[in-house]
Design a protein that fits this description.
Mean pLDDT: 87
Structural class: mainly alpha
Low-confidence stretches: none
Largest sheet: none
Distance between the termini: 19 Å
Strand content: under 5%
Helix content: over 70%
Order of helices and strands: HHHHHHHHH
Shape: elongated
């Protein structure tokens, strides 16, 4: 089935008002049953990536990073088992894996003399058990497994073609 520009735009418009979660993807499938799951996922991913690219800079200002880090610390102090990072990412409309990266980088900067290398951070994101703080490791893990568009889990899935 060929997707028209009008159909694409109708689907994309629906995505503006929903968070980028698997539940939203299910609702999208219910709203557009004639479209395949793969088509909807593709549009979902494209539109979300456009959004992230548009808003990336505002999430990486020193003020934003410190604000997010402080909110993370306050949240885990109240309840370390709650999905603080995941909720923060959803609240500020940013990809959970990318929020986890921001907080992990800030955490490591505070605990080491030199800024951590990208390879160290990437390895910790791929395997959160390497993170020296158990609570942060759990928070990062929650973000990675709940992010349907970004992160090491998504990258791994994208490497394997579908049957």
């Amino acid at each position: 089935m060929i997707l028209t520009k009008a159909q694409y735009e109708e689907i994309a418009q629906c995505l503006v008002s929903v968070p980028p979660t698997r539940q939203s993807l299910r609702k999208l499938k219910q709203r557009f049953p004639s479209q395949s799951q793969a088509t909807l996922l593709s549009i979902f991913s494209q539109e979300y990536q456009k959004h992230i690219k548009r808003t990336h800079a505002k999430h990486h200002t020193p003020e934003a990073i410190e604000s997010y880090y402080q909110r993370y610390l306050d949240g885990v102090e109240k309840n370390g088992a709650a999905p603080v990072l995941l909720e923060l990412a959803n609240e500020v409309d940013y990809a959970p894996s990318l929020m986890a990266r921001i907080i992990l980088e800030r955490f490591l900067q505070g605990h080491e003399q030199t800024p951590p290398s990208k390879s160290v951070i990437n390895n910790m994101l791929r395997d959160p058990s390497q993170i020296p703080d158990g609570v942060l490791a759990n928070q990062v893990y929650q973000c990675i497994v709940n992010d349907c568009c970004y992160g090491p889990l998504v990258d791994c899935i994208k490497q394997y073609p579908s049957p």
